[in-house]
Every structure is written in structure tokens, then in C-alpha cells.
């Protein structure tokens, strides 16, 4: 269970996945903040904490189920001479989901300037439990891309679990600061969505038995992130 501890690749995967999970949780924090703002001020911290706790529970439950499904390697049917197993189905469907969600989010950010949906902008306050119910539904939606990304990037369940727990714990502590930072640097969110396109493509390829070494993916992500950090530094100096 803990054999991954001696693997440098597993530690790289853990660091990369944790950082990506934190960035992917930005949308969750933004929508959570919008919903919580409809509560009285004294109830908001409690609702925010419970909402993120629900997010962690749902992510871990989905992670356990998807990790189990990826072990189903017996062919269920054959398409064009290619055997498709339960694992392949999970990877292909998950990859398509990531691609669709990423492209839609990129389109939303460009065309709609990142505004929240009208359904989340209603004025007035709501009851505490109705807000929690809405948060639970949103958590399910946002947990899917997070968990599918974890399954696509790491080979060990322990690595995925640690990354998810650390990321949600980080969000609990720095929810407000994270939202403000990404609002000030929207290109960082765009970079994360681009990473999702890359991971989704890799998942589909893996499901079709075309395996892309994860080291290439990690290097591409790290290099892109380093370039973006340099760009952010240049923009700050010019400002």
C-alpha cells in the first residue's frame, strides 16, 4: 500500500496533483462564496466550512469508486477490433467529460467574462439548510473533474487521497485568499483549464490503449507553470 513512498515519480505526481487540485477547486470556492453570501453574516463561516467538508467527502467517495472501476481490465465488448474494458470506459468517458467541461469553461471565461450564472446571483437570503443542499449539488458537479483528473494523473490510490485531502484542507484555510488571488490573475485559471484539456486527452488515449508516459505530461505542466510565473512577475514589474 505504501510502496509508492520510495518512488520519485509518485512524489512528483503528488506535488503536481495537489497543486492542480487546489487550482481546480477555485470554481468550487467561487460558487460556494456566491451561495454563502446569501446567508446572514454570522452563518457564513459555518456554511463555508461544511460546504468544503462535503466536497472532501464526495471527492473521496468518488475517488474510491473510480479507482476500483479502473481495475476492471476484462474486455466487455469489442469495437473495430479494439477490446473495451470497464477501465477503458471509465477513462474514455472521464476524458471526454474533462475535455467538454474545460472547453465550456474556457468559452465561458472568454465570452461571458467569467460572470456567475444568473441562477446563482439571486438577491436576498435563503435558509441555512437550503443553501447546504445547493452546495451539495454543486460539490457533486465540481468533484467529478477533480476526481477524474486524480485518476488520470496518479497510479496509487494513496497519492490521490492525500492530494485531495491536502487540497481541500488548503481551501478551507485559504478560501478567501485563493479567490482573490485567482481573480487578480485570471490567466492562472486559464492555464489550469488547459491542463485539464491535456489530462482529458491523455485519459482518452489511455482508454484506447495508447499510453502517454506521465513524465511527459508532468514536464509539460511544470514548464508551462514556470513560464506563467515568469509572465506574472513581468506583469507585476510593469504595473
UniProtKB/TrEMBL annotation:
<keyword id="KW-0812">Transmembrane</keyword>
<dbReference type="Pfam" id="PF03741">
    <property type="entry name" value="TerC"/>
</dbReference>
<feature type="transmembrane region" description="Helical">
    <location>
        <begin position="12"/>
        <end position="37"/>
    </location>
</feature>
<feature type="transmembrane region" description="Helical">
    <location>
        <begin position="216"/>
        <end position="234"/>
    </location>
</feature>
<feature type="transmembrane region" description="Helical">
    <location>
        <begin position="128"/>
        <end position="151"/>
    </location>
</feature>
<keyword id="KW-1133">Transmembrane helix</keyword>
<dbReference type="InterPro" id="IPR005496">
    <property type="entry name" value="Integral_membrane_TerC"/>
</dbReference>
<comment type="similarity">
    <text>Belongs to the TerC family.</text>
</comment>
<feature type="transmembrane region" description="Helical">
    <location>
        <begin position="190"/>
        <end position="210"/>
    </location>
</feature>
<dbReference type="GO" id="GO:0016020">
    <property type="term" value="C:membrane"/>
</dbReference>
<feature type="transmembrane region" description="Helical">
    <location>
        <begin position="157"/>
        <end position="178"/>
    </location>
</feature>
<keyword id="KW-0472">Membrane</keyword>
<feature type="transmembrane region" description="Helical">
    <location>
        <begin position="89"/>
        <end position="107"/>
    </location>
</feature>
<feature type="transmembrane region" description="Helical">
    <location>
        <begin position="49"/>
        <end position="69"/>
    </location>
</feature>
<protein>
    <submittedName>
        <fullName>Excinuclease ABC subunit C</fullName>
    </submittedName>
</protein>
